Every structure is written in C-alpha cells, then in structure tokens.
Amino acid sequence: MKRIWLWAPFILFAILIGVFARGLLYPTDRVVASGMVGRHMPAFVLDNAVPANPALDSKQFADGKPRLLNIFGSWCQPCIVEAPMLMQLQAQGAEILGIAIHDEPDRLARFLATNGNPYVQIGLDPKSRTQIDFGSAGVPETFVVDGNGVISYQHVGIITPDDVPIIMAKLKGVQ
Amino acid sequence: MRGVSILLPLCLLATAPQAIAQIDYANVQLTDPAQERAAKDLMETIRCVVCQGQSVADSNADLAADMRGLIRERIAAGEQPEAIRAWLIDHYGDWVSFKPQVDAASAPLWGIPILAMLAGLFLIRGRLKRRST
Known about the structure:
The structure holds two protein chains of two kinds.
Chain A: H1 2-25, E1 45-46, E2 56-57, E3 67-72, H2 77-91, E4 96-101, H3 105-115, E5 119-125, H4 129-133, E6 141-145, E7 151-156, H5 163-173
Chain B: H1 2-15, H2 17-21, H3 33-43, H4 62-76, H5 81-92, H6 107-132
Helix pairs in contact in B: 3-4
C-alpha cells in the first residue's frame, strides 16, 4: 500500500506535464468576444462617413426591424475580402448598416466604389469610441441586432461563404 | 507687417478653445501629474485586444491608442481607475485586464495555496510533536 503513495508525486508530475504539453500543442482560442452580446446596444450618434450614405443613430434600431451592423474600415484589408459576402447577405434581404473606423470620406468612397456598397447607412467612428462601447476588438466584425436594439450575435473577423447562412439564420431567428 | 498679418490669425487659431477640447489624449499626457500617473498605471494593466501580448500603454495599434484616449478622458472627468477597469472587463471579458481579479472563477487560485499549506502543517504536525517531547 505504501508503495503506491511513493509513486503518487511522480504520477501527479506526469499529469502536470500532460496538461502543459496540451496547452503548448493546442493553444486556446484567443478571440476576444464582446460582453455586450445579449444586452441592449450602447447609445451613439455618428456623423455620416460618406455623403452617399446617411448618418447613423442608435435610436433607429428600436423600430422592430432586425439588422446587421458591420464594423469596418477602408484601410482594412480583410474587409475587402469580406465585401462580396456582405453583398450576398444584402441580396438575401439583410439590412446592413456600417460603422467606419478611423476613416476619411474620399478613401471610403473609393473603397465602396471598388468593393460594393451594401450599406443603407454608414456612421463614422473617428476615435473607435463606439467600437469600444460595443466591445468590438477589431475590424471586420458584424453584430446581429434585433428589432428592440438588443445585440443577439457577434461574428468576429471576416465573413466567409460558410458564415453567410449562419448569419442569415441568426438574423431570421430574431425576427 | 505682411508676415504679422498672416501669423496673427494662426496664433489665434492655435489658442482657440475648441482646439483644446479636441485634443486626442491617445498620445498626449494629462496636465495634472497625479491624473496622468493614475491613467498610466491603468493603461499598463489593460491588454491591447489587437496585439494581445501587449498592454495598451505599449501597443501601437489604433484601437490601443483610442483606449488610451478613453482612459485619459475618463480619468480627467474624475472617474476612478478601477471603475474604468470594471467597465472594460464588462465589455471585453476578464482577459482584457492584466491585474488578476478575485471572483468565483479565480477563487481556487488564491485559496488552494493557503489550503495546501494548512494541509502540509497538518501532515507534519505529528512529526513536530514527536520531536518536541
């Protein structure tokens, strides 16, 4: 019986090594998820980022219509990759609003002319304050907002073709 | 004379009140040293959510700069650093803070060493007693 107790520290040590090895081989998911999901969206009033698309006000989200809110920027390379997927979402009936981070009107206008303009409205967030209020950790990110202005889903990073049906389902789910 | 007529409006522009209100505190220190100290201390313990190994004080990312601006503005407005930390944790999760918090999830981390020491004392208790007699 005593023999087993002698081995106990070695067994514990082996388990510990196993835990460390697992941590090294499979690093944890480092996506910074927003704590605002499931809560009412923060209040904001943003000027329009380009003349073609009207400005954005958080009050308008309480009209019963669920929407997608896409956080992007004309300087953001992954946003170019994502653009065709936003066009697809729009074609499938999603209403998309944009928040442009650190942007300039002419650069953004060029970005929209090249990559498409699926946005009904685009608000300019020059100092990322609204982005931080949303708990968003980067661009691009997309939020599903229900008809009461409650954030029901967050998609971090580029929307890939596989994500389009998922996001459409989330949008329909809150209707 | 002509030089002065050009320079004067420029000087007035530089001292206009709205120019002061529009200072971007991302890379500008607060004028009150105590407030700047408090803001700096907080920035050094808030993780940059873009380049995750760095604090917002060290990071060059735009979002980190904006978080520095946000922290300085809130400190200048009289908000307590720990209240700002709590607000950021509320928005980004525990991971955004480098300063470990004591809560239900982290309680074992703080409690186990104390419990282990008590258990150790309990185990050697018999031996110590034998020696003293």
